[in-house]
Amino acid sequence: MFNDLRSAVRRIEEEIEKLVEEQNRSLRATASRLALLYLQKERMEELLAKAETETVPMPLPAAPASPPPPGRPERAGASSVVLGRAATVIVEALERAGEAGLSGTELNDAVRDAQMSKDASEKAKTRLKRLGLVRHDELARRWYPLPRAEVGAR
Fold first, then answer.
1. Looking at the whole model, is its pTM more than 0.70?
2. What are phi and psi of 77, to 5 degrees?
């Protein structure tokens, strides 16, 4: 009778040891993953801080030889740039939003409200970003108009 009880106690102890070993492996894996995530976060924060302090010059395209097609020229320092309808809608919406900026979806909605497609909105956002007329914060997922002085400095 005591032997049966001792065997049962040993089996329970073995089961406890296995469970503790499994949990230790799981904790080590979780700790490794957390360490990797913290390293990635630190690296991204370093890159973000570096990007915020650097200014990258973005030259504007030369003025076309022929008269520009219909559209609204934009801002001081960018008067040679003529924007299409979708880009004009986006710039105007961003100027109305001010420092709060707008999400990509909100910009797409503004373009759609002007009877244009989402594709036109996406192409216009890309062009405006390339021309240095707007800024896209990928972390916040928001678009912002660049201040007039910043556009002229580029």
1. no
2. 85, -15
